[in-house]
User: Which sequence fits this backbone?
């Protein structure tokens, strides 16, 4: 390695620089780094073998769907492992994720053993994951319908809340008169969770969907309004002055300076609003709306079918994770100008 | 007729202090005339009201008494005819370098006709390569170059520079000083520069206005009769520097200046 440093001096490629920076790694270190990358795949394989071949408790049966899912995960890990030989980035990323993946697989294995293999955690309260998957697959048409309903309600409520919230917040930050009227409303409504009004709204609303959307919208409206208002009020003075001396008129300053400058603050409100919307959605579906995943959870619980209930809970978690990561991606895209400072 | 003439007629600016009953006189009966295409610097210690004076010309502040006139019209508000470059560059961080430069043109609806000019300006400040970068990715000096291109893109008659190089290191500062002279010569704009750097004022301008603080007054107007490009170690340059420093009460009074090297 010393000769690389000696001959190439400063004009070295990224790869050479990396070798140079890793010159203290011994052969043993490198071997361990390699092994670490392969560990997740090994553990997944062990889990599959355990699920299939360790004898089950009573007449419990291993699930084909679960094995298929694990095999897919194993396949992805193997492909990734192959990639690590060609791409250093892939290697480092998998090395970083390795411990987390191994931990997850160990927890899955332990749960699998405790339920289906030993019967320590017994049915009907603790179905093994394969059983939950099978139940989800058998009831899929109903579940799709529920997901569709939940999404429809979530987005209707969320976007109405965001739309009105942005309008109120931006105008309240921009104009003193609007601020005078909006500020007291946010003070009063902001302190109370919108779910409090659920019984009244459900009683008065002509449609349950409309009522629930209103409650979600109200919950979203508050953080969006407050964040937009703060964002607009905190736009630095020199941005206004720069725009003015460049000949920008009042409306242009609002749309081309004030709104983009408040975007970082607005996005904190949008994210906060989304978690409130998710929360309110579940409460609304469990309390009144007769559709959607929240309703399905309650319904299955009523029938004592805990396996299906778990399935819907898993689905609702995945849905919310998906929605929040999409919002995160949008945020990253819109605020891309914030990265890469010197 | 040449445009870019600025007249300051008996301007006084008094600020109200929010915490106290007192008022603060920032500018006391200032009279100043800047000819079209002239490069004028205003120097003075902090608190002499030089920035306030510039902000009055920009239209960001209103004088308490007197009036500021640009090309025969009393200044009542901001205009793209009087560009302003700030000390902290004030680029819009959410826009790329290129969109920052085009910002004023979009405001005045002249984007289509003036893209060439914007390209030229960006090239002249040496940042064509960074067209698609965001201001966060630029150094202080590069940002200030973009700010210059942005202010000039709307083709102002007067360019107001509010300590634009104040926050930069010495080498970057000298580089941008040369860029400024180049822009002034090629674009033929009236330039009014606020600075606390005496060398910068002498290096760049045809005329230096020296102000004293509390209340802000013009104590002297000095013509710099040196050809461009100027040499910072030239004896005349040194003479001007000592003269101005003495006026500002910074130079050693009496006796020779000692060089301890």
Assistant:
């Amino acid at each position: 390695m010393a000769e690389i440093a000696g001959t190439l001096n400063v004009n070295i490629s990224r790869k050479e620089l990396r070798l140079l920076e890793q010159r203290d790694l011994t052969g043993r270190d490198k071997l361990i780094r390699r092994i670490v990358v392969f560990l997740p795949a090994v553990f997944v394989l062990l889990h599959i073998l355990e699920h299939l071949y360790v004898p089950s408790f009573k007449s419990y049966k291993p699930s084909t769907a679960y094995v298929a899912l694990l095999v897919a995960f194993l396949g992805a890990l193997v492909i990734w492992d192959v990639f690590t030989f060609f791409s250093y980035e892939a290697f480092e990323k998998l090395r970083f994720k390795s411990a987390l993946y191994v931990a997850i697989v160990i927890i899955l294995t332990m749960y699998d053993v405790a339920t289906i293999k030993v019967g320590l955690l017994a049915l009907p309260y603790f179905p093994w994951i394969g059983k939950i998957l099978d139940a989800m697959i058998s009831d899929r048409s109903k579940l799709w319908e529920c997901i569709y309903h939940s999404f429809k309600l979530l987005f209707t409520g969320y976007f109405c809340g965001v739309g009105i919230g942005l309008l109120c917040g931006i105008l309240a930050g921009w104009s003193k008169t609007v601020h005078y009227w909006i500020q007291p409303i946010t003070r009063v409504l902001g302190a109370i969770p919108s779910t409090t009004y659920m019984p009244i709204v459900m009683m008065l609303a002509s449609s349950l969907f409309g009522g629930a959307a209103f409650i979600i919208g109200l919950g979203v409206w508050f953080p969006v309004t407050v964040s937009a208002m703060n964002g607009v009020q905190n736009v630095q003075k020199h941005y206004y002055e720069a725009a003015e001396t460049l000949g920008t008129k009042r409306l242009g300053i609002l749309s081309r300076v004030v709104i983009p400058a408040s975007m970082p603050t607005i996005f904190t409100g949008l994210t906060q609003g989304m978690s409130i919307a998710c929360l309110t959605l579940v409460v609304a579906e469990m309390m009144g709306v007769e559709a959607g995943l929240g309703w399905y959870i309650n319904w299955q619980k009523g029938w004592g079918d805990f396996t299906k209930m778990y399935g819907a809970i898993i689905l609702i978690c995945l849905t919310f994770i998906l929605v929040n990561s999409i919002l995160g991606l949008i945020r990253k895209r819109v605020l891309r100008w914030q990265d890469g400072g010197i | 007729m040449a445009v870019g003439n600025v007249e300051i007629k008996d301007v006084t600016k008094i600020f109200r202090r929010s915490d106290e009953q007192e008022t603060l006189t920032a500018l006391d009966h200032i009279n100043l005339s800047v000819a079209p295409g002239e490069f004028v610097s205003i120097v003075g210690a902090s608190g002499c009201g030089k920035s306030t004076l510039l902000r009055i010309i920009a239209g960001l502040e209103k004088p308490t008494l007197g009036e500021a006139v640009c090309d025969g019209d009393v200044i009542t508000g901001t205009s793209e005819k009087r560009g302003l470059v700030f000390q902290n560059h004030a680029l819009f961080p959410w826009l790329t370098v290129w969109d920052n430069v085009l910002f004023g043109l979009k405001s005045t609806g002249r984007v289509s006709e003036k893209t060439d000019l914007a390209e030229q300006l960006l090239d002249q400040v040496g940042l064509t390569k960074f067209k698609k970068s965001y201001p966060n990715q630029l150094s202080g000096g590069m940002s200030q170059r973009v700010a210059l291109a942005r202010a000039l893109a709307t083709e102002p008659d007067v360019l107001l520079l509010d300590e634009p190089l104040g926050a930069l290191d010495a080498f970057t500062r000298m580089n941008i000083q040369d860029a400024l002279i180049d822009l002034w010569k090629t674009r033929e704009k009236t330039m009014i520069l606020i600075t606390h750097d005496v060398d910068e004022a002498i290096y760049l301008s045809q005329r230096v206005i020296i102000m004293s603080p509390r209340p802000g007054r013009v104590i002297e107007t000095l013509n710099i009769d040196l050809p461009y490009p100027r040499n910072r170690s030239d004896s005349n340059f040194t003479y001007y520097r000592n003269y101005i420093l003495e006026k500002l009460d910074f130079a050693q009074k009496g006796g020779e200046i000692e060089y301890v090297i």
